[in-house]
Design a protein that fits this description.
Two copies of one chain form a homodimer. Chain A has a six-stranded mixed beta sheet with strand order 2-1-3-8-7-6, with helices on both faces. Chain A has a three-stranded antiparallel beta sheet with strand order 9-11-10. Chain A has nine helices and eleven strands. Helices cover 43% and strands 24% of the residues of chain A.
């Protein structure tokens, strides 16, 4: 437990389409992977629709509770893209056309021979004082204000923005993870696994059932910030699996003899 | 707007594995689809880890705000399955071994020649006064207490439980949805689409960018509870696309003549 640094995060995914089922979110899992690799603990995710009050309320609840907040969605050029307004409202600052973003977008559309429409100009709006998150895919930037990182909902753009943001973050001690495949269901392993968890309080041991055909098997995952602690718990998990295997063998031999 | 019934819902997905990225959630999108088909509006989703305080806090915030709450995860037999305890704590009732669930599980394991271990007995625990949600896949029931429906995290089991729960719910006026594929990006359609939204306040018009190759196209989705209103807005959207096509054709002819 010594010298550990914990950095926490939450994500707010924004969009009616996620709640109607039209779009199956791909950004939550990606951000979770990237934060875990970086040593930042994702503690909570919320999904809300394109409603200013809902966004403001969720954002204000999260940004006071966790070190970093990441949002996805609602920063495009159409009327239902209201994230910049909502984030401005949450921080109590005006939502303005950012001069640098206007230049970036104006030049890009000029280069492509496209009109810089009112709708496209909407993508330059952000809370006063926000910094850009670069968008190498389609130019229109995301932005950072306070501890809130506002990114696009289109997965290719979201992922590029996450790549740009991660190196700017303070990170904690990475959580190491050891996965052990277990051929037995949770009903077989539940009691001994609870004892192993108790014996290894520096680790967090999860078991994830898989239901294939007619039987459950499990993946057991040992997580912790100390390699020694994870390895020690992992050894006990492997010994548990071997012990269950032996006792099942004995039981089978007995019923064969009977 | 007449004679419309609005029924709202929220989902709470529970599990460290969703926040670490190990498991990519499949249940949120499925529930969203099923509720939309049933005329229930999913308004908010939260994901929290296997921590009692986090579960209790989220559940109490959601259950007072929406008509129905659906949870996934944390009702298995291992030490990290704490949803039954957390839901009991949220409702201020004891978490007990349910007699009917003990019978169901005891008979099932006896039939399969398996020991009814302490771990497996954990799956019979639920808040005092809860009703079962049947589990045709692997027997261990979910449960309902108040407006909270507690279901398994394994997608096959979650989906079977959703199928069992949906017919028991009060449903609202279904939201009808009309999808229109649009070859132009949001920068082209943003301004006219905002005008169409304004002219059709009974509908909610969303536009969902797709980034394929080097260009954006859009799917425009008109949603509303009145077929006439959805159709009228859809007609205007189609006319808008045709008008953009014509003006682009004129622009191309001009530059060809120049």
């Amino acid at each position: 437990m010594t010298n550990e640094t914990i950095v926490t995060a939450a994500m707010l995914a924004i969009g009616d389409e996620l709640l109607s089922g039209r779009t199956k979110d791909k950004n939550i899992g990606h951000l979770a992977d990237m934060l875990t690799l970086s040593g930042i603990d994702l503690k909570e995710v919320r999904i809300v629709g394109d409603e200013e009050n809902a966004i403001v309320e969720a954002l204000n609840a999260l940004r006071t509770k966790y070190d970093y907040i990441f949002t996805s969605g609602g920063i495009g050029p159409t009327h239902d893209d209201i994230t910049a307004d909502a984030v401005s409202a949450a921080f109590g600052v005006p939502c303005e056309y950012d001069a640098d973003a206007m230049n970036l977008l104006g030049e890009m559309y000029a280069r492509r021979g496209l009109e810089f429409t009112e709708a496209r100009k909407r993508m330059a709006r952000m809370p006063k004082g926000a910094r850009h998150i670069p968008n190498p895919v389609s130019t229109a930037p995301g932005f950072v204000i306070g501890n809130v990182h506002v990114m696009a909902g289109v997965p290719q753009v979201f992922q590029a923005m996450v790549d740009a943001v991660i190196p700017t973050l303070r990170t904690g001690t990475r959580v190491l993870s050891l996965g052990i495949s277990c051929p037995y269901g949770e009903g077989d392993i539940g009691t001994p696994l609870a004892a192993i968890q108790k014996a290894h309080p520096e680790t967090s041991i999860g078991s994830y059932p898989r239901y294939i055909g007619q039987a459950f098997s499990t993946e057991i995952v040992v997580r912790g910030r100390s390699q020694d602690a994870v390895d020690a718990a992992g050894d006990d998990v492997r010994a548990m699996i071997e012990s269950i295997r032996q006792s099942k063998e004995v039981a089978e031999n007995r019923s064969a003899e009977a």
